[in-house]
Automatic annotation (TrEMBL):
This is Acyl-CoA dehydrogenase. Keywords: FAD, Flavoprotein, Oxidoreductase. Residues 120-238 form the Acyl-CoA dehydrogenase/oxidase C-terminal domain. Pfam families: Acyl-CoA_dh_1. InterPro entries: AcylCo_DH-like_C, AcylCo_DH/oxidase_C. Coiled coil: none annotated. PANTHER family: ACYL-COA DEHYDROGENASE (PTHR43884), ACYL-COA DEHYDROGENASE FADE28 (PTHR43884:SF20). Signal peptide: none annotated.
Length: 262
């Protein structure tokens, strides 16, 4: 199912407005009313990047990763499924507003003892888009601060060190987004999630340096995005774990397959 540019823009505007207004269980219900599950079934290549990128950009959250993983396994959305987490543990992202206490305290994610193996490619790609969206939100905060903050009589954006950090961040985010647009198999999605996780961690580090002391305060938005990307990076395999896993797969294959036609 294809969507024309005008309709896609209208859909994005509606989703952004909704995510700006509500989060958590309310957003989960609002997305269902907007036809999220139908979009996921009929046009996943459009719905997944759009919804998950906007979740990152707006800072909202909803348990829709469950729907992606369940759909990839041939099941129906609307439920929950245990998901692997960094360090060999498992978690469940509940469809409630009962926040967990072990992973930052703002998400309804709870550890479980064990889970069954699930297909992870689609879920990793979805989380990759969420990480890219969060990275762009952090970069926007740092860029705005660099333009507004005056030091020694001029904006800090004019200092070379600040420019280098922002430029390196943009390159990392753009590169991660390019990898997300390329994958079509398990290895491609694995590498795309790893790239998005690494880009998000790079973004968090550089943007914190650009923002300086204000970036550490509870009043500023940055810390919420940083905590979010730490959780998202760890879910379905962290950047470090996935890079190690990819290396093992390539050693077994004995060659590096072509992942994109350039």
């Amino acid at each position: 199912m294809s969507v024309d540019t005008e309709s896609l823009q209208l859909l994005e505007d509606a989703l952004r407005k909704t995510m700006t207004a509500v989060s958590g269980r309310q957003l989960d219900e609002a997305l269902a009313e907007l036809g999220w599950l139908d979009m996921l079934a009929e046009m996943p290549d459009t719905a997944i990047p759009l919804v998950f990128r906007l979740l990152g950009e707006t800072g909202a959250h909803a348990p829709v990763i469950n729907d992606v993983v369940l759909g990839a396994a041939g099941g129906e959305g609307g439920g929950t499924v245990p998901l692997p987490f960094a360090g060999g543990s498992w978690v469940v992202w509940d469809r409630t507003d009962e926040a967990g206490t072990t992973l930052g305290g703002d998400l309804p994610i709870h550890r479980v003892s064990v889970g069954d193996p699930v297909r992870l490619a689609a879920g990793r790609r979805a989380l990759g888009w969420w990480l890219v969206g969060s990275s762009r939100a952090m970069l926007a905060l740092a860029r705005r601060h660099a333009l507004d903050r005056i030091q020694f009589g001029r904006p800090v954006a004019s200092f070379q060190a600040i420019r280098h950090r922002l430029a390196e961040t943009l390159v990392a985010v753009e590169g991660a987004e390019a990898t997300l647009q390329a994958p079509s198999d398990d290895l491609g999605c694995l590498l795309a999630k790893a790239a998005a996780g690494q880009a998000a961690l790079t973004t968090a580090r550089h943007c914190q340096q650009v923002l300086g002391g204000i970036g550490f305060t509870a009043e500023h938005e940055l810390h919420r995005h940083v905590k979010r990307v730490l959780v998202l990076d760890a879910m379905l395999g962290s950047a470090r774990e996935l890079t190690r896993e990819a290396g093992g797969l390539l050693r077994v294959k004995g060659f590096a397959p072509r992942l994109a036609q350039l």
